[in-house]
Amino acid sequence: MSKRGERGNEGEGRAAKPLRGRAGRMKNGRGSGRASTGMVRLWGRHAVEAALKNPDRSHRKLWATREGVESLDGELPADFPIEWAQPADLGRLVAKDAPHQGLVLECAPLDDIFLDDVLDGDPLRPVVVLDQVTDPHNVGAIMRSAAAFNACCIVTQDRHAPPESGTLAKSASGALEILPWVRVVNLARALEEIAEAGYWRIGLDGEGQSTLAEALPAGPVALVMGAEGDGMRHNIVQHCDAIARLPISEAMESLNVSNAAAIALYATATRETDGAAQAA
Q1: Where are stretches of biased composition, namely Basic and acidic residues (predicted)?
Q2: To which H or E segment does residue 156 belong?
Q3: pLDDT tens-place values along the chain, 280 residues long
């Protein structure tokens, strides 16, 4: 079972219809454009709603339009800090041209998670390992697919991976709040721990001799993917039990890493479903 830590949940809550809360006006109609020190700023309905419902989040403040609040599901505590704003004002709080959908939430980042907290050895729940995938849009999209296919967790390196952010959370569409994200110092060592826990580690590479379907085992699996262009580093390849490819057309050189991850997760889920059906 994942553990986000033991931070208190002061100020957390669920979004409301109808909304109650302490409301104010944005001073001079402008925001700083930056989150407070140590805070994360999230935007967009799915990302904000999921964060409000996450008991492991500590929330500081919600800036919102009336329409944005009306789109949410749930209920906020009566004293939840809300500041009403116009769409243009919210645009100054987030990245340029970010689709905030009338909602901007400032909250504390999630607590660290450790591998031994989440590795459960369930063959139906793969581990996703990303080697130096740095684009927050890609990492967020991979999180969304991993959550959709009931992955155990996603593992990245502390460095050479994007931080928790509004852009990543928006791309994850709520998955950031429900999918355990393990950030490690040494990815090779993490792969050793994953193997010790009984997982078969498959690295995805277009030069793999076997297809993913051929390489997939019956038991727990870890899917390892590298950045577009460079792919997996040599040391990470050396820590994989097999290297496999997706059988794409020769007309295309490669797939976006988030697309490849979605296909690999589907192949893993289908393998397990088919196996369970045959066993039954």
Answers
A1: 1-15
A2: strand 153-157
A3: 333 333 333 333 333 333 333 333 333 232 333 455 689 999 999 999 999 999 999 999 999 998 998 888 877 767 889 999 999 999 999 888 888 999 999 999 999 999 999 999 999 999 999 999 999 999 999 999 999 999 999 999 998 899 999 999 999 999 999 999 999 999 999 999 999 999 999 999 988 989 999 999 999 999 999 988 889 999 999 999 999 999 988 888 789 999 999 999 999 999 854 444 344 3
Q: Is the peptide bond before 18 cis (omega within 30 degrees of 0)?
A: yes
CA dihedral 112, 115, 116, 120 (to 10 degrees): 120
pTM of the predicted structure, to 2 decimals: 0.83
What is the token pair recorded at 112? 């660290």
- For residues 42 and 126, membership in a common domain is answered with no
**12: its two tokens:** 């957390």
Q: How many domains does the chain divide into?
A: 2
Q: What CATH code is carried by the domain that includes residue 66?
A: 3.30.1330
